[in-house]
Amino acid sequence: MELPTTADEPSERIDPSPVEAPLETVTSDPSVIERKLLTMRWSQTHIPTLRENPAEADAPSHQLLLRAGFIRQLMAGHYSLLPLAVRVRSKIVSIIREEMTVIGAQEFSLPAMHPAEVWRRSGRWDAMGEEMFRLTDRKGSELTLGMTHEEIFTSLATELKSYRELPQTWYQFQTKFRDEPRAKGGLLRTREFTMKDSYSFDLTQEGLDRSFDLHREAEHATSRRRPSARPR
After folding, report:
1. What pLDDT was estimated at residue 194?
2. Pairing between β-strand 71-75 and β-strand 78-81 as defined by DSSP bridges
3. pLDDT of residue 33
4. Torsions phi, psi of 92, nearest 5?
5. Residues 6+ apart with CB under 8 A from 85
6. How far, in Å, are 31, 66, 194 from residue 117 at the CA level?
7. How far apart are CA 131 and CA 223, in angstroms?
């Protein structure tokens, strides 16, 4: 982007970011500069705004997200995140990840679909009730779409063989599925959503309390953060 100039004034380049160095100091490759500039063009970003509140949106937050072009509803409780929402989500995830790193947590990425037997071993296959999405594959095996991941993390923790390996703090960002009976609140109480869930494995009750306090500190630090703030 360039400022308007007159015959007596030299052309000046606006630094696209107060943090990043000017493009010409980063690379001299024209194709790289062109790709970088394309990412900065607001006019090329898909932001489908609406003038009126959609009929299906009752909650004010839901109305604003739809009208501002952040989300679109596919069906009840299932939403597509558009480019603006993806950027917001990415910044939130980055902030949480930084604070979890501070307390020594390790990030995992676990499957969203689980075999029924791991839930039966914990006794929660029946206890979860109708909120659990259940399905059967072509071989007849019973499966579920994960509404939480305690069972899966615990199955991985069986590989911890010595007390010397404790404590361990594991977490992830993963899509969860819950068959909510009334999914009408926009991004609240949806049937498909991103959750950051975290688990600690400790040797003593005192260690468990310490892990809880560390998580609480991380949550408080996250709530005070802003996207432009630097990690501690």
Report:
1. 94
2. antiparallel
3. 60
4. -65, -45
5. 65, 70, 71
6. 52, 40, 24
7. 29
Structure token pair of residue 87? 């950027």
AA identity, residue 153: F
Residues with Cβ within 8 Å of residue 190, at least 6 apart in sequence: 77, 78, 79, 180, 183
CA distance 39 to 18: 16
Residue at token pair 């597509």? 80
Give CA–CA dist 204/210, Å, rounded: 10
Residue segments in the chain with a per-residue pLDDT below the cut of 50:
1-24
Q: What is the pLDDT of residue 29?
A: 67
Residue carrying structure tokens 């015959």: 7
Identify whether the C-beta of residue 215 lies closer than 8 Å to the C-beta of residue 200: yes
Please report the pLDDT score of residue 30 as a whole number: 61
Question: Tell me, what amino acid is at 183?
Answer: A
Q: What is the pLDDT of residue 37?
A: 55
Integer Cα distance of 36 and 40 in angstroms: 7
Which of 174, 202, 179 shows the shortest CA–CA distance to 190?
179
Alpha-carbon gap, residue 144 to 136, rounded angstroms: 8
93, 65, 75, 103: which is closest to 196 by C-alpha?
93
Q: Tokens representing 113?
A: 């679909």
CA 86, CA 80: separation in Å to the nearest integer? 10
Closest alpha carbon to 113 in 154, 139, 147, 157: 147
